[in-house]
Amino acid sequence: MNTNLSIDLFILIGLIVIGLVFVLYSQFKKEKIKPNYRLFFILGMTWVPLGVVFYKTTRNIGFLIMGVIFLIIGLINKDKWGETVIVNPQKRKLLMIGLILTGLLVLTTFLLKYFK
């Protein structure tokens, strides 16, 4: 058997086992956690542009597809979004700095890959 194929199978089997453990754990848990559909929408809004960039640079369409799926899930369940969480100004400033730095990093990576 090819070494790369055996490593891929090992990783796949490991991911399946980890997924089954999480599913079984959540089934036996007493309190159920409601999904945050607003988070699905936000993830979709961020993964779609990332997916476009990744598709243009690496021809990998995974992020784009997952972003569209997250957007659809969030929009279908818009009535279950709940209340808005208020973030204090200091934390909001840190989050904006992190978001801007991440955006600059993604843009720089894209430009370096594109103009290489």
In short:
The protein is an all-alpha fold and 116 residues long.
How is the secondary structure organized here?
Blueprint: H1 3-28, H2 37-58, H3 62-76, H4 89-114
Helix pairs in contact: 2-3
3D architecture notes:
The model has no long low-confidence stretch (mean pLDDT 85). 77% of the residues lie in helices and 0% in strands. The longest helix has 26 residues, at 3-28. With 116 residues, it is an all-alpha fold.
Mind summarizing the main beta sheet? Answer: none
Identify low-pLDDT runs: none
Order of helices and strands: HHHH
Cα-atom radius of gyration? 19 Å
> Looking at the chains present, what oligomeric state does this protein adopt?
single chain
Strand content: under 5%
Search tags:
116 residues; 77% helix; mainly alpha; single chain; 4 helices; extended
